[in-house]
Design a protein that fits this description.
alpha+beta, Mannose-Binding Protein A, Chain A, nine-stranded mixed beta sheet, 2 helices, C-type lectin domain-containing protein, carbohydrate binding, C-type_lectin-like/link_sf, NKR-like_CTLD
Length: about 140
């Protein structure tokens, strides 16, 4: 006699891939409830922020060490603008969301726009052209 038990290998509830709350736009990467876009062209800081804004996103605001590690792993060899700038070298650094930078990492250089490089975070003139990283909450 053959054993007639059939074991279901399908989970009882398949997640629907079309659930918008879990989706990032085409070509964006999801990580810890945020969606990220790593550009493959070079633009100035303002263009980069305007590009992000067109997706209801902003240049990335880095909230944690884990996020910093993730960004540095994904960015490859290129420098990428992040959402941190100051009016001049007498002013405090501010995130794009208005929060004053709490000096949780060192920013090298005397520029007005911050970018991720191979060592950490550096700054250059906001008019120079770099790649950039956008981020926004998942599902927004």
């Amino acid at each position: 006699t053959h054993n007639t038990h059939t074991i279901s290998i399908l989970p009882t509830a398949l997640p629907s891939p079309s659930t918008p709350t879990e989706c990032c736009p085409e070509g964006w990467i999801g990580y810890q409830r945020k969606c990220y876009y790593f550009s493959d062209s070079d633009r100035n800081w303002t263009y980069s922020q305007n590009y992000c804004a067109s997706f209801n996103a902003s240049l990335v605001v880095i909230d944690s060490q884990e996020e910093m590690i993730f960004l540095r792993r994904y960015k490859g060899h290129f420098d990428h603008w992040i959402g941190l700038q100051r009016m001049n070298d007498q002013e405090p650094w501010k995130w794009i969301n208005g929060t004053i930078f709490n000096k949780s990492f060192e920013i090298r250089g005397g520029g007005t726009g911050a970018y991720l490089n191979h060592q950490g975070v550096a700054s250059g003139t906001s008019g120079s052209e770099e790649r950039w990283i956008c981020s926004k909450p998942v599902g927004k």
